[in-house]
């Protein structure tokens, strides 16, 4: 059976703060994301990009409107469902949040452990494969302190991919990467989209990604002001 689009957003509004300080961050967002696609979200600082990403990622409560994620409505969803859904997502956020006391491969293994116990040998194999995919085969046993900013970011990306997520949510994932590793990350995400149907939504201003994204959604002051598919037709 066709599982339908992984993300369907309708009439989404969001506010921060309370009382006098209450401020609307999103206005009436409608967005349907196709399975296996790579969507770039762009817009000026404060336009609501991260807010959209965190709502789709079950990291904030949906206040008004509807967000359907992998076939499940998030508004009023029970904590248990949100937890199960979060396990099907891969997060790549700016602050890469690696554990300083764990090596690269141990950090990537953490990305598998949310799924419950697995044969340790298989875990190590999967984590090693993900690191190799990101060009870090020779850095597996390094601690984060001994890796460059770009290498740390690639470890964080490997950790997001290792669990085979249905949807990857990324916030400026290539900002710390040089030209070649940035392109490599885009290649990997595009390949996963084609091979496994993995969907990616990514906040980015990186031209290397914008040139190749399936779709570019532009936000301004909490509203979608442009939605283009650069290569459609
Ligand atoms: N935790 C919060 N508390 C109060 N206001 C917030 C909070 N998070 C975001 N906002 C406000 O909501 C609006 C949208 O913020 P958001 O972080 O989604 O924008 P953004 O487009 O991701 O910006 P940037 O590119 O700077 O990361 C902004 O006006 C911001 O100040």
From TrEMBL:
Record InterPro entries: AAA+_ATPase (IPR003593), ABC_heterocyst_DevA (IPR014324), ABC_transporter-like_ATP-bd (IPR003439), ABC_transporter-like_CS (IPR017871), ABC_transpr_LolD-like (IPR015854), MacB-like_ATP-bd (IPR017911), P-loop_NTPase (IPR027417)
An annotated Gene Ontology molecular function: ATP binding
Species the sequence originates in: Methylobrevis albus
PROSITE patterns for this protein: ABC_TRANSPORTER_1, ABC_TRANSPORTER_2
Keyword Cell cycle: no
UniProt protein name: ATP-binding cassette domain-containing protein
Keyword Nucleotide-binding annotated: yes
A family per Pfam: ABC_tran
Keywords: ATP-binding, Nucleotide-binding, Transport
ABC transporter domain ranges (all copies): 9-232
The family this protein is said to belong to: Belongs to the ABC transporter superfamily.
GO cellular component, as recorded: plasma membrane
Domain of life where this protein originates: Bacteria
């Amino acid at each position: 059976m066709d599982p339908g689009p992984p993300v369907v957003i309708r009439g989404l509004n969001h506010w921060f703060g309370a009382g006098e300080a209450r401020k609307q961050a999103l206005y009436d967002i409608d967005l349907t994301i196709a399975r296996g696609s790579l969507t770039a979200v762009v817009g000026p600082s404060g336009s609501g990009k991260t807010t959209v990403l965190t709502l789709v990622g079950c990291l904030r409560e949906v206040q008004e409107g509807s967000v359907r994620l992998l076939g499940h409505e998030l508004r009023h969803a029970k904590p248990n469902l949100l937890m199960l859904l979060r396990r099907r997502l891969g997060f790549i956020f700016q602050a890469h949040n690696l554990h300083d006391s764990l090596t690269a491969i141990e950090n990537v293994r953490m990305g598998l452990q949310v799924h419950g116990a697995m044969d340790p040998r298989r875990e190590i194999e999967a984590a090693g494969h993900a690191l190799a995919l990101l060009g870090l085969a020779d850095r597996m046993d390094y601690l984060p302190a001994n890796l460059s900013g770009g290498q740390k970011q690639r470890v964080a990306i490997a950790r997001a991919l290792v669990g085979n997520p249905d949807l990857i949510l990324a916030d400026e994932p290539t900002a710390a990467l040089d030209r070649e590793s940035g392109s490599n990350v885009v290649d990997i995400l595009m390949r996963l989209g084609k091979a496994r149907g993995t969907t990616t939504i990514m906040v980015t201003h990186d031209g290397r990604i914008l040139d190749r994204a399936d779709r570019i959604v532009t936000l301004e002051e909490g509203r979608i002001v442009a939605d283009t598919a650069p290569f459609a037709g």
